[in-house]
Design brief:
Elements lengths: L1 H29 L3 H32 L8 H28 L1 H4 L10 H24 L6 H27 L12 H25 L5 H24 L1
């Protein structure tokens, strides 16, 4: 329960900071305050991505070193944290790679019209959906679903919701967030984002194996050994 409280509180803080910085970025760009726009654009990006990286580090540390804690639906929360952490880590790497290669594209007064904005949309869409699932759906509904199904559901939910946003942007503005999918048909659109969700599921499963989680068989073997010891102790007491 403590783990759940910590994770939800952290998610609320991170999202509040990030959405506030995003709000400042848009307001100051729309009002054409050049100095303020440049300042808030630069520092809102830096601050929120530092928070995102910190969030992924905390979650991965929590999984790697605190996995022995016993909580209800621990498998579901571990898988959900992995989805959020892996998405955050990948998007952070893309963002900072762009910063190193083309800083003018990121820190620009016309940042709303630049191609790297798809990275920013990826951050907010994935993390917002992930937090909503964690805060609302997971504790009340999905705790009965096995870990693999819940993780697959989370990956598909994140990917498809981002696909819906892309489709909406394409219909309203004529251009999607990703330039290379502007010419996709609706069928290819669905295949692409469902495939992305399945790929995220596979990556998360691979991360679980790398982190060497305790297998159910190992737990059963430990319980069997305890039962055998108890039987032996009872027999020895009777003989004595």
């Amino acid at each position: 329960m403590n783990r759940l409280i910590i994770s939800t509180t952290w998610s609320i803080i991170v999202n509040a900071v990030c959405w506030y910085s995003w709000y400042n970025l848009y307001v100051y760009n729309l009002l054409n305050f050049k100095y303020q726009a440049q300042f808030f654009t630069k520092w809102s990006f830096v601050i929120e991505h530092i928070f995102y990286i910190a969030q992924s580090i905390v979650q991965i540390y929590h999984l790697a070193f605190k996995r022995k804690e016993k909580i209800k639906s621990s498998s579901f929360y571990c898988l959900l944290y992995l989805v959020g952490a892996s998405t955050t880590a990948i998007a952070s790497g893309i963002f900072w790679g762009l910063v190193l290669m083309e800083p003018k594209l990121i820190f620009s007064n016309k940042v709303r019209k630049q191609p790297p904005m798809f990275v920013h949309h990826l951050f907010h869409t994935a993390t917002l959906v992930y937090s909503v699932v964690e805060l609302l759906i997971a504790p009340r509904l999905l705790w009965k679903i096995p870990g693999d199904l819940s993780m697959l559901f989370s990956c598909l939910f994140i990917s498809c919701s981002y696909g819906v946003y892309n489709r909406w942007k394409h219909v309203t503005t004529g251009k999607a967030v990703y330039p290379f999918i502007d010419k996709f048909s609706p069928t290819l659109w669905v295949i692409f984002f469902v495939g992305t969700g399945v790929l995220g599921y596979i990556i998360s499963k691979f991360l679980i194996v790398c982190m060497r989680f305790t297998k159910p068989n190992e737990k059963n073997e430990g319980n069997e050994k305890k039962d055998q010891r108890m039987i032996v102790n009872k027999i020895t007491k009777k003989t004595n």
